[in-house]
Amino acid sequence: MKQVDKVTRMLARLPGLGPRSARRVVQHLLARRESLLLPLVEDLRHLAHSLVVCSVCGNWDESSPCNLCLDTKRDRSLLCVVEQIADLWALERSACYRGQYHVLGGVLSALNGVGPDDLRLAKLEQRVKEFEIREVILATNLTLEGQTTAHYIAARLARLGVKASRLARGVPVGGELDYMDEGTLSTAIEARQKIV
Amino acid sequence: MKQVDKVTRMLARLPGLGPRSARRVVQHLLARRESLLLPLVEDLRHLAHSLVVCSVCGNWDESSPCNLCLDTKRDRSLLCVVEQIADLWALERSACYRGQYHVLGGVLSALNGVGPDDLRLAKLEQRVKEFEIREVILATNLTLEGQTTAHYIAARLARLGVKASRLARGVPVGGELDYMDEGTLSTAIEARQKIV
To answer: Which of residues 71-90 of A touch B (CB under 8 A)?
Structure first.
């Protein structure tokens, strides 16, 4: 059972899985060899060999530049800066944004030794200079590091004369005040909006 | 991103994963293509192609009969009957049992249309007749269906003149009485043991 143990240990390293759930996954896969395990292996292998990082925005796709960057229906004067590809996907799922993206690949973090040169900032500035970008939306996370990074980028973009914006803050849709932290509530009160 | 979505949907069918965690797993794997995704694909593929069901006990292994059945150090007169291979693995991890196993592959269930012929019962009786089995431990789950199955098998084994036993019932190690259900507590009281 050495092989089973090896795969179990690998699966246990995935987010959301532990040793016990990884074991259940292996058993589930082995019991469905033809219907699930073999197709999954094929698709994972295909994914591993076909996806590339887009040289423009940093997204994953089958081609570089990616389909989002090549899409002529998207607004090319609008650029949304996100930390990770997962954030780009989340925004795409909401289907509310029709501009271009730029993936930083992380956030500034003294603790983790991540400086400006470790993020895709040179490429961002190059895109801003090369194309007519009218606005950059800094959609980093509302964490301390995410906001530090957003402020740093905003300062650099100001030198290039580009307008930078950030996501609205407040109570999330469906949110109950009783469960919100003080920071969210005070932000929501400060930025309260007129009812029209 | 059709490929990514396809893999995500497949992963979301695994136990313990949902659409959101499956997405996180895909992102985690893609970000670690060389160190995790490709090795995992290789190992899963190897597992899918090398594991077979043991024709004797029903366990998975690289050979049939499996290593447990071939192990001459194990007691061949003792047979432990379990519902699933996962149960066999759980008992093996506890390292307290040194006999042979027999995997039923399920439990009797009128609701799910599982009858005696759908379980590996003929093979069990054949083993009991062919080899000198002195005791069969019925280690099915302590669910209604598991216990029904155990009683059914015990009755069939009685006709063959083989001793059948079951696992002890009571409060699990580390269990707090406050969190135990009434069934467990009443069983534990009834089957109380003398302190020596």
So the answer is: 84-86, 89
Do residues B24 and B81 both lie within one domain?
A: no
- The pTM of this model reads 0.73
Question: Residues A78, A161: one domain?
Answer: yes
Burial (CB < 10 A; 0-12, 13-18, 19+), residue B150, is buried
Q: Is B51 on the interface with A (CB under 8 A)?
A: yes
Indicate whether A44 and A108 sit together in one domain.
no
In a domain, B57, yes or no: no
Q: How confident is the model at residue B192 (pLDDT cuts 50, 70, 90)?
A: confident
For residues A32 and A6, membership in a common domain is answered with yes
Q: Are residues B71 and B141 in the same domain?
A: yes
Whether A28 and A87 share a structural domain: no
Which two structure tokens, joined as six digits, stand for B68? 């447990």
> Which chain B residues are within 8 Å of A26, Cβ to Cβ?
47
pLDDT tens by residue, B29-63? 998 999 999 999 999 999 999 999 999 999 999 89
CA proximity to B97, closest of B41, B37, B131, B57: B57
Residues B143 and B177 reside in one and the same domain: yes
Q: Please tell me the total count of domains within chain A.
A: 2
pLDDT tens digit string along B128-140? 999 889 999 999 9
Count CA atoms within 13 Å of residue B53 on its CB side.
15
Model pLDDT, residue B28: 92
- For B63-96, write each residue's pLDDT tens digit: 989 999 999 999 999 999 999 998 898 888 888 8
For A92, the closest chain B residue by CA position comes to B1
Q: Does A62 touch chain B (CB under 8 A)?
A: yes
Rounded Cα distance, B41 and A126, in Å: 38
Instruction: Check CB contact of B46 with chain A, cutoff 8 Å.
Output: yes
* Domain housing B170: 66-194
Residue A181 and residue A111 in one domain: yes
Chain B environment of A48 (Cβ under 8 Å): 30, 33, 37-38, 41
Is the pLDDT score of A130 beyond 80? Answer: yes
Chain B residue at shortest CA distance from A6: B43
The pLDDT score that the predictor gives to residue A72 is: 92
Q: What is the CATH number of the domain that holds B27?
A: 1.10.8
User: Which parts of chain B are beta strand (E)?
Assistant: 52-53, 60-61, 75-82, 99-103, 135-138, 163-166
Distance from CA of B16 to the nearest CA of A (A): 6
**Burial of residue A174, with CB atoms counted within 10 A of its CB: 0-12 exposed, 13-18 middle, 19 or more buried:** exposed
